[in-house]
Amino acid sequence: MTVARILKEKGRAVATVPEGATLNDVITQLAARNIGALVVVDGAGAVAGIISERDIVRILAENPAGTLNDTVSRHMSRPVITCSERHTTAQLMTEMTNHRFRHLPVLEQGQLVGIVSIGDVVKQRFAEHDLEAHSLREYITTG
Questions:
Q1: 135 pLDDT exceeds 90?
Q2: Considering the entire predicted model, what is its pTM?
Q3: Strands 16-18, 37-41: pairing kind
Q4: What is the model's pLDDT at position 130?
Q5: Can you give the chain as a three-state secondary structure string?
Q6: Which of 3, 102, 109, 113 has most Cβ atoms within 10 angstroms of its Cβ?
Q7: Where do the domains of the chain lie, and which CATH numbers do they carry?
Q8: Are 102 and 117 spatial neighbours (Cβ–Cβ below 8 Å)?
Q9: Peptide bond connecting 79 to the previous residue in cis, omega within 30 degrees of 0
Q10: What's the rounded mean pLDDT across residues 2-19?
């Protein structure tokens, strides 16, 4: 199963935030959209970084006072590890596990075309296993 298939099912909408946004803006968007990460974009719309709930918790734990008005560019994760539509769910699981993150922006020819979360990957992997089990049952009962 590929990223293209995941995006076909879930859609290509990506929540983004400009580099100059504050951490308070980020927290507000994450909560309002019920999502775990925002892709940070520069003035030209290119991916500049990513910031997640986990980043926010770490930032607040290190300096709870005064950071909410900091710009996201001071705290975002970069460089951003990305994937393409050709990557498989197995490749995504390896990347996410090895680097300990839950979101991968999807780029095609340098353009942001989607985002994949660990939840999306797990959902697809379960679907793959269900299909395989169904196919094996069919083979056994008709063989």
A1: no
A2: 0.86
A3: parallel
A4: 62
A5: CEHHHHHHHHCCCCCEEECCCEHHHHHHHHHHHCCCEEEEECCCCCEEEEEEHHHHHHHHHHCCCCCCCCEHHHCCECCCCCECCCCEHHHHHHHHHHHCCCEEEEEECCEEEEEEEHHHHHHHHHHHHHHHHHHHHHHHHHC
A6: 3
A7: 3-142 (3.10.580.10)
A8: yes
A9: yes
A10: 95
Q: Does the CA dihedral 117-118-123-125 come out positive or negative?
A: positive
CA distance 19 to 29: 14
Q: Is the pLDDT of residue 127 over 80?
A: no
Residue 98 has pLDDT above 70, yes or no: yes
> How far is the C-alpha of 40 from the C-alpha of 63, rounded, in Å?
21
Cβ atoms of 18 and 41 closer than 8 Å: yes
Task: Provide the token pair at 133.
Answer: 């089990």
